[in-house]
UniProtKB/TrEMBL annotation:
Keywords, sorted A to Z: Cell membrane, Membrane, Transmembrane, Transmembrane helix
Region entry Disordered, spans: 1-68
Chief place of localization: membrane
Subcellular location: Cell membrane
The species this protein was found in: Kutzneria viridogrisea
Transmembrane regions: 96-118, 138-162, 201-227
The UniProt record lists the keyword Acetylation: no
Pfam families: RDD
Name under which the protein is recorded: RDD family membrane protein YckC
């Protein structure tokens, strides 16, 4: 009878009766096939993630970042490329600055004009002690009524000279320039020109001449970019004039 060598395993798994090193198959057994993709390293068939990009995010380095509100601040325009839409905060700041730039000098002008007209009205009324009647009161009333129509007309002329002319020729009022926004045509990215500038201004401010309801419309027109379901932040005035408001800084 032959004596088996020391450490012989009668089950045939290891001729020396020792456990195989960690990670090796026992002697006499078929190696097990690992599941697909197990231990696969990048660069050997596995898709690699661009350097510096968050895991799971698709797109390259030039993909536009999402805005804080969840939508995209960036849009593509034909023959222009990628442009960044102005935020509502920038647009509100531009309107506030324009109101101050135009409103302060205009308020001073209207005060001086009103004071002069009031002085003229008072001096035109004369009291006759013999009859106890006032003369010139009719003329004074007519002057007062004329003043009521003169003030809105002056405001309209100043707004047209300021906003329409600057939007038509530069795409920016002074307030928009400071706030970093610009008005462009949506189809070619150029400055609006006179037609769209007048149309944009007319839609926004012309209804304001109607008492109460006109002022409400102007307010809603200011807020209408919030309601744009296309995602371009176009107000009603922008849609009519076919313009966009973009950010320049």
């Amino acid at each position: 009878m032959t004596t088996p060598p020391s450490g012989f395993d009668p089950q045939g798994q290891n001729p020396y009766g020792q456990q195989p090193p960690y990670g090796q198959q026992p002697y006499g057994q078929q190696p097990q096939t690992p599941p697909p993709g197990f231990g696969q390293q990048p660069g050997y068939g596995a898709p690699q993630q661009p350097y510096g990009q968050p895991y799971g995010q698709q797109g390259g380095y030039n993909s536009p970042p999402p805005s804080a509100g969840g939508g995209l601040d960036y849009i593509q325009l034909p023959n222009v490329g990628t442009v960044r839409l102005a935020s509502m905060g920038q647009r509100f700041l531009a309107r506030l600055l324009d109101a101050l730039i135009v409103g302060i000098p205009l308020t001073i002008l209207m005060f001086l004009l009103g004071f002069g007209l009031f002085s003229s009205t008072v001096s035109s009324v004369q009291y006759d002690p013999e009859t106890g009647a006032y003369t010139g009161a009719t003329a004074a009333a007519g002057l007062s009524m004329g003043t009521l129509f003169l003030f809105p007309l002056i405001i309209l002329v100043v707004e047209v000279l300021y906003e329409v002319s600057l939007i038509a020729t530069r795409g920016q009022t002074l307030g928009k320039q400071i706030a970093g926004v610009k008005v462009i045509r949506e189809y070619d990215g150029q400055i609006p020109g006179w037609g769209p500038a007048f149309g944009r201004f007319g839609v926004m401010f012309a209804p304001g001449i109607v008492p109460c309801l006109g002022g409400l419309f102007v307010l809603l027109c200011y807020l209408s970019p919030f309601f744009d379901n296309v995602g371009r932040r176009q107000g009603w005035h922008d849609k009519v004039a076919k313009t966009l408001v973009i950010a320049t800084k």
